[in-house]
């Protein structure tokens, strides 16, 4: 008898759960320009840079106030305190090219180590990270570094692999 009452109790709890109406969620459309994300990705890229590049890859030009089917290309600026990206899209939100500039970001470890090996007594006082992306899969990345040792300053250019240019 005890098992019968417990069984009825459990059935009483489970039946109302199946009677609920399903909730219809709104449709979410993600654009994701994966070619751009794959090309621009790096192992130790600064968080600010990664987040802004993700916004650039997800941008949908059809949501712009100035969107018109007559326009073939759209230039859009993305700006944060440490940098900016000028991105060009076609009318279907495909990312065609970018020009990116970031100032005084956290450098990847392999770039820091490369500079420390070649210039052991020098400190990095300023840095600029430049990226130019041209669809499809043509990307150029470069770090412009200002090194300081006392009163002396030199400028060097390093690619994203840590090789000096």
How does this structure look, described?
It is a single chain. The protein has 165 residues and is α+β, with helices and mostly antiparallel strands. It has four helices and six strands; from the N terminus they run αααβββαβββ. Strands 1-2-3-4-5-6 form a six-stranded antiparallel beta sheet. The protein starts with a helix and ends in a 6-residue tail after the last strand.
Order of helices and strands: HHHEEEHEEE
Q: Strands of the largest sheet, in order across it?
A: 1-2-3-4-5-6
Helicity range: 25-40%
Distance between the termini: 85 Å
- Secondary structure tally, helices: 4
Fraction in beta strands: 25-35%
What is the overall silhouette? flat
Mean pLDDT: 86
Low-confidence stretches: none
Assembly annotation: single chain
- What is the β-strand count? 6
- Biggest sheet architecture: 6 strands, antiparallel
Indicate the radius of gyration in whole angstroms: 26 Å
By secondary-structure content and strand pairing, the structural class works out as alpha+beta
């Amino acid at each position: 008898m005890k098992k019968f009452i417990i069984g009825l109790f459990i059935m009483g709890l489970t039946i109302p759960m199946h009677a609920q109406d399903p909730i219809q969620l709104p449709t979410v459309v993600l654009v994701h320009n994966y070619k751009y994300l794959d090309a621009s990705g790096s192992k130790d890229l600064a968080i600010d840079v990664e987040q802004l590049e993700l916004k650039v890859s997800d941008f949908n030009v059809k949501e712009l106030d100035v969107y018109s089917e007559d326009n073939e290309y759209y230039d859009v600026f993305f700006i944060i305190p440490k940098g900016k990206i000028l991105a060009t899209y076609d009318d279907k939100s495909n990312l065609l090219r970018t020009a990116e500039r970031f100032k005084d970001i956290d450098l990847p470890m392999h770039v820091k180590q490369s500079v420390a090996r070649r210039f052991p007594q020098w400190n990095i006082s300023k840095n600029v990270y430049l990226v130019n992306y041209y669809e499809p899969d043509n990307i150029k990345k470069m770090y412009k570094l200002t090194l300081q040792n006392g009163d002396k300053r030199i400028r060097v250019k390093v690619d994203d692999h840590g090789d000096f240019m």
